[in-house]
Amino acid sequence: MSAPNKSYDPVEVEALKPEEIERMRDEALAAFAAAGGLDALHEAKVAHTGPTSPLSLANREIGALPPQAKAEAGKRVGMARGAVNKALAARQAELEAERDARVLVEEAVDVTLPHDRLPAGARHPLTTLCERIEDVFVAMGYEVAEGPEVETEWFNFDALNFGPDHPARAMQDTFFVQGKAAADSGSAAGSAESGVVLRTHTSPVQVRAMLDREPPVYVVCPGRVYRTDELDATHTPVFTQVELLAIDEGLTMADLKGTIEHMVRSLFGEGLTTRLRPNYFPFTEPSAELDMQCYVCRGESAGNPDRPCRTCSSEGWIELGGCGMVNPRVLIAAGIDPEKYSGFAFGFGIERLLMFRHNVEDMRDMVEGDVRFTRPFGMEI
Amino acid sequence: MRAPLSWLREYVDLPAGETGRDVQAELIAAGLEVERVEQLGTGLTGPLVVGQVLTIEELEGFRKPIRFCTVDVGQANGTGEPQEIVCGARNFSVGDKVVVVLPGAVLPGDFAIAARKTYGKTSHGMICSGEELGMGDDGTHGIIVLPQEYEPGTDAIELLELVDEVLDIAVTPDRGYCLSMRGIARELATAYGLPLRDPALLDVPAPNSYGYPVQVADPAACDRFTARTVTGLDAEARSPIWLQRRLQKAGMRPVSLTVDITNYVMLELGQPLHAYDRTRIQGAIGVRRAEPGEKLTTLDGTKRVLDAEDLVITDDRGPIGLAGVMGGAETEIADHGAATSSTEVVIEAAHFDPIVVARAARRHKLSSEAAKRFERGVDPQAASAAAQRTVDLLVLLAGGTAEAGVTEVVTPSGPHTIAMRADHPDRVAGVRYGRESVVRRLQQVGCDVYGQDELIVTVPSWRPDLTDPNDLAEEVIRLEGYENLPSTLPQPPAGRGLTERQRLHRRVGRALAGAGYVEALNYPFVGDEALNHLGLEADDPRRTAVRLVNPLSDTEPALRTTLLPGLFAALRRNDGRGEHDLALFETGLVFRPTGDEATPVRLPVDRRPTDEEIAALDAALPRQPRRAAVVLAGAREQTGWWGQGRPATWADAVEAGRTVAREAGVELIVRQDQHAPYHPGRCAALLAVVDGQETLVGNAGELHPRVTKAFGLPERTCAMEIELDLLERARTGALQAPHVSAFPVATQDVALVVDASVAAADVEAALKAGAGELLESLRLFDVFTGEQLGEGKKSLAYALRFRADDRTLTAEEASAAREAAVRSAVERTGAVLRGA
């Protein structure tokens, strides 16, 4: 800053004339407007607002004015500098926005590019369907019970009221485990007496559940079971069952029916009826086969050749599984007093359920582990 | 069981308009599984008439013998002139009565008949075989030759009963009585509320002492034996058309009159019968257990060595039949037309113990119509009637004479009664039926019912399956209609959801799927070949497998002891189908017998077994732990626009193990290992602290090249297998939340040179031990080998992060901690600080 000018010279304060200040201001504004980029704007900024810019120099001259002129000149210069700074900031913002917009455009990518770097995994639909069914019952208060797949005949048959010579026992197509003697000698003959089998149903888990718990017992038993069927489009020797068992005081067939209807609604939606047909199983009495109304045609296809239904073969009904009231003999073998308690049981195959719920046409697809089959099912079903 | 509707109508006056589908619905509701209703003669329209062959001209010069015939069809052709027909069959002669279809008719299968030129002649119709008319097998494979009594021109559609409906019923083991028209008709009558004409209600002469002698040595196994004799049978007599047709519709083949009659009566009444040629029996008929080693040639021509438990029918020479299963060839009645036809027969109608018959049939792998019925229970009270019915038919159709002698050996047994509260069915069903309905329904079933609140129910002789109150409840409920049951929802006690174990199994599946693995559920069957391919030593415990008596395939007779072979097969299958970048997983049981499994004793079922008894049973079972396993091949990460992918390696397999363990809340300890089927230099042992002990829980790595070759897997296939049951036990209690410090972190890097054989895990452990409490985390960010390090050396570069809970660390503090960490590594692993 120059020192105050005590003996000012009017000629030297030419720069503080109003027209001069206006000119300086207008030149600055014009220069900012003309700046095509941030670099040019910076140059203009130095030229028009820097310490050697005309306005700055003019400002310095104010001190040289007579006191009575200082106020007016100061005001004039101040207003001009204010306008210049404002214009500079506006132009700065404008140019930055332009630059940013340009950079973001340049950085644009094709977001439709695939990114299958790590292909997705999936769980088997039999697993997830099983879990879904478990969840329906767990929500009702049931426990999930499990048991061994290699099982003693007592648990698999005897305790379930399949006597040793029961025709139904022969109908179960059982895999028998070799006894020790046979295994040692490597011969299979005459070794059916090991008393151990691959479980033919998950019902032995029910027996174990009853032995393990004090009634009331409400369990759902999912698991793998084995029968000596050859693998084809509709059979597999290794399949998955879910059974449920309820033991309590005063349980009735009406309770059984209501429970299964609840499950059908949970899995297939509202409005489907179910049907019980008398049947026979050694471990339940009375016994029934359970059908649900076909969820595709809703029964419309039965006896209606114009509306054939592949899902139910135009029967209108889909066979779900077997059920009934637990035979009191089974309760006795499991140490439950049939005078006090009654119970119901229901069992069905998950493979069949998967087949008609998801239009699986060939059982082999569930068995072979082909990733093209399993992958689309993802994590939940 | 196949039941023609026309036959059932003989016993129940069904409304005329009832179709097979209607009847099916009613019977299904009553508990008979009517699988389908077969429509016989659908689309069949005449004229189909009886014709008499007038002339036969053999046509020569064709590849097969052809006959040009003229046939008298009465007025059926409108002219009364002989009908000219070309025929390829040869089993008829001039004068025979045959079945002729005339132009304009349509045979089953939309087969329209018209006059047509063939073999140089015009054939005005066709002489028909049973097959062409949809009649089923009649055993002749030729055209039908009718008995002479029918006039030419007679309508054959009616004569041969070609239009009918047949119910095909899958009879459950408890409903043995429904293996007869009588039983099915009874259900039908009840379902329609109509009276039943019981075909077993016959006048039967009282037994006397001059019938054929029978001695029953085992009255427990044979509580009833009726024998009747018919003589003077016409050797030329053949089964009439109606009889043949009923057998055919029921699925049996007509054989000879006597055999057809016994089969017919069995179908009608459910009582298996046997006819012996009396001239071929020597001495009295006996019923006893077989001597061990005795032999019998059964009717199917098989020579069988008998078991001491087999019940046999004998004459003076020895066994002549396997009781209730099959007769013997020795005393077989001869077919008509045979050189010496049987003209005298002894009819057996007996009742055998179901278990005795079931065991014999199983022992000799011989299923028969008779055995099927005895196993499921035959009405013992119907035996006499069945014998009488057979005698009547032999007299009627074969011109025989019934001998007056009637043999009946009966071990009397009281009727079976069940005590049941009158409201028991109500309590089972959850419906109020009331005593009156209960009693009425039980009476419909054939029971006698006494009592008020407590009912005494005597079950009918044909329902041996009714033994318990619940059996009676089922009868009431099914006749009242299962479809009329209401729906209610029971209120279970509040549940606790899934167990920790079940939640773990789900999490493991989700975590592996989330890491890109696809679940495969493989059969657990393996063979020795797979165990050999794994490269297992002879004494490897994985060779001790559960073996099956009756495997589906002889090459896979055992159960898996490891999940890997199944996954290998699935991997190979996918690879063969063109998927080469694969990551599969499975969780499931493996079966690990120790060889010390006990043989289970057969426990009673009339009480709860004791805990000791249950433990003894369980001791018969192999250990069945649950495992998780993965296999990987091809690219783990794909190459793409983002850059290079990378192949799946041993490290992915080990990481899969860590992924599983992490879900169990367990930190795995990884060690170098050598273990089949892995590459000896690329195999990790996976350990965890189980019950306070460091325990091997699994293995992971790259497969041995010999193993990939043996299983036909892609090169460098990697795998991991880990035991979930052990991880579950390794789980520590609820996690304590970490304290999160807000003070700044001090980062220090350190590069250590160690021998190549030193495990990175050991270096890391040493650094951690030396760094002390200030170490927040440590990460290996580079592994480097190169000439400047020297032969057999590697450099491991770690980033160490230090932080204090209560202050900002000074540079000196951080450096001191780093130096302490390095010292520890130097001491424990021989590491040298790089650049030091």
Automatic annotation (TrEMBL), chain A:
InterPro entries, A to Z: aa-tRNA-synth_II, aa-tRNA-synth_II/BPL/LPL, Phe-tRNA-synth_IIc_asu, Phe-tRNA_ligase_II_N, Phe_tRNA_ligase_alpha1_bac, Phenylalanyl-tRNA_Synthase, tRNA-bd_arm
Catalytic activity: tRNA(Phe) + L-phenylalanine + ATP = L-phenylalanyl-tRNA(Phe) + AMP + diphosphate + H(+)
Cofactor(s) required, per the database record: Mg(2+)
Annotated Mg(2+) binding sites: 285
Transmembrane segments: none
UniProt entry keywords in alphabetical sequence: Aminoacyl-tRNA synthetase, ATP-binding, Cytoplasm, Ligase, Magnesium, Metal-binding, Nucleotide-binding, Protein biosynthesis
Principal cellular location given in the protein's record: cytoplasm
Note on how the cofactor is bound: Binds 2 magnesium ions per tetramer.
Family according to the record: Belongs to the class-II aminoacyl-tRNA synthetase family. Phe-tRNA synthetase alpha subunit type 1 subfamily.
Subunit structure: Tetramer of two alpha and two beta subunits.
Name used for this protein in its record: Phenylalanine--tRNA ligase alpha subunit
Protein source organism: Streptomyces olivoverticillatus
Organism classification: Bacteria, Bacillati, Actinomycetota, Actinomycetes, Kitasatosporales
From TrEMBL, chain B:
Cofactor annotation: Mg(2+)
One annotated GO biological process: phenylalanyl-tRNA aminoacylation
Main location, first listed in the record: cytoplasm
Details of cofactor binding: Binds 2 magnesium ions per tetramer.
PROSITE patterns: B5, FDX_ACB, TRBD
Residues annotated as domain B5: 413-487
Entry's Gene Ontology molecular function annotations: ATP binding; magnesium ion binding; phenylalanine-tRNA ligase activity; tRNA binding
Domain FDX-ACB: 741-834
Keyword annotations: Aminoacyl-tRNA synthetase, ATP-binding, Cytoplasm, Ligase, Magnesium, Metal-binding, Nucleotide-binding, Protein biosynthesis, RNA-binding, tRNA-binding
Assembly notes: Tetramer of two alpha and two beta subunits.
Family named by the database record: Belongs to the phenylalanyl-tRNA synthetase beta subunit family. Type 1 subfamily.
HAMAP family hit by this protein: Phe_tRNA_synth_beta1
Protein name according to UniProt: Phenylalanine--tRNA ligase beta subunit
Source organism (scientific name): Streptomyces olivoverticillatus
